[in-house]
Amino acid sequence: MSSPDYDCIVIGAGVQGSFTAYNLAKNNKKTLLLEQFVLPHSRGSSHGQTRIIRKAYDEDYYTHMMEECYQLWSQLENEANVKLYRRTGLLVMGPEQGDYQVFKSTLERNKVPIVILPREEFSQHIPHVNLSQGNAALVDTTAGVLYADRTLKTVQGQFQKLGGLIKDGQKVIDITPGSVVTVTTVSGVYRANRLVITAGPWANTLLSHTGLQLPLQVIKINVCYWSEKVPGSYNVQHRFPCFIQLESEEAKHHIYGLPSNEYPGLMKICYHTGPETDPDERDRQTDRGDIDILQRYITRCFPGLVPIPAVVESCMYTVTPDDHFVLDHHPTHSNIVIGAGFSGVYVLNMSIVL
To answer: What is the DSSP annotation of 189-225?
Structure first.
């Protein structure tokens, strides 16, 4: 048997794979990061200028994870001398007796700094937003915006400074498990003691080479940007927060948004689900049901926005049946680790050290 070329190969150079490779290199592991597309690209789940970072979740363990994540983001900012995070706060809205209460309890139980916004004072604190009848509101004051594209560039650069190797344009066509794992791409053959698969929507395609399939569904998200009627009304410079609407008249899934920032005068508001799609034919999926939902919601709750999207971009989520991600060793091959089903989550800053 041939000797390994690397301690570890990571397949997939999105946020999860790039941070995994970076942490492996920090732990003196000779690491190869493979990406099927030429970098940078907008074909997966990690592209775009901004994402929300928050401690407001419905499960304690996510809030606990975020404590470490904030420290790791700060550490990376200091290492690279690059600003990756802007604190804006996260406005959480929802029916008082629904998921809102679960989020509120999780935040209070974990002593996360929050501000409760009484209905009679809501408009003083959050102008240009109509709080739905029967809804309550709070602000997770620790939350903010992550600069996504900048983050990917930064962490990949730090990985390379640590001696890591990135090979893009390297679509994987075969994986041969064993004590030394062999990965075959369209351009070469690579061997390592260990393998990490963080391939987002293509996870099951790769796992099929190892005799495993996971209950993953790939969905297309229409990333919509909406014009301000009065410039600056929802601007990050004017301290407008990110927001999440937990339940609404229009839909059962969450609606979320970020203040106008990346496109001047445009606020990003999206629906946290979408139609199933084939990741290799994403743009053939033309369902706009989520946009219809957003138009009705924005008309009712964000009167300062034009309720017709000015820009629509595409992203993909990979989801599991219970919406919790998979992070585990392969059941048959213990030297293969799988990270999948992150449902659009950008903020976990995954650190797999093998």
So the answer is: EEEEEEEEE--GGGHHHHHGGGT-----EEEEEEEEE
Q: Identify any residues that bridge with 210 across adjacent strands, giving them in sequence order.
A: none
Per domain, the residue ranges of the chain are: 6-46+149-216+322-352, 90-141+217-318
Q: Which residues of 138-176 are buried (b: 16+ CB within 10 A; e: fewer)?
A: bbbbbbbbbbbeebbbbbbebbeebebbbbeebebeebe
- 3 state SS of 329: strand
- What would the pLDDT profile of 39-73 be if each residue is shown by its tens digit? 877 677 777 788 999 999 999 999 999 999 999 99
- Tell whether pTM > 0.90: yes
- 180-232 pLDDT per residue, tens: 999 999 999 999 999 999 999 999 999 999 999 999 999 999 999 999 999 99
**Is the CATH number 3.40.50.300 carried by domain 6-46+149-216+322-352?**
no
What CATH number is given for 90-141+217-318 in this structure? 3.30.9.10
